[in-house]
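Now produce a polypeptide, keeping tokens residue-aligned:
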Amino acid sequence: MFTEILTHIKKFITLTAAEEELLTSYLTIKEVKKKEHLLREGEVCHENYFVVKGLVRMYLITPKGVEQVIQFGIENWWITEYNSYKSGQPSGFYLQAIENATVAAINRNVQEELFEKIPQLEKYFRQVLERAYSAQLTRIHYIFNLTSEESYKQMLQKYPAFVQRVPQYMLASFLGMTPEFLSMLRAKK
């Protein structure tokens, strides 16, 4: 079960066999059913999740009661609500499985302990955060600098399998458009 996460980590840093064993002893594997929440608004986020299999989304509910997708977590991607995770304050977001998923969870306190025992893990998580931040900036660029049609075409060109995998209304929310408009764009093909 830990093969995927260790393979991912090895793309960034080198671990000894003893360090791999120590790391995996701190991870918890969770099977998450489709539509099940890992986190709800108002709860404190205590875990960072590596998606082994499946698809997870982060979203919030706007004052108008609309779900706004902020981020997706696919295989080999970390997802958590960092504000709550780092501060210990209640979250304003939800984390939910879109498909049946398997995640490897690491508790915040354990992660800090691991950084002391395996210092190069800090480098790994820094690089993971840099990639996540870059992905968020790309999304923001799409929303503010491209038309809705251009945003969709970029997503379709770069991530065709992902676009087909995600429910249309969630993809529309992520791209900052209505599901009806996305449906119209898809019909244009």
Observations:
- The mean pLDDT is 94.
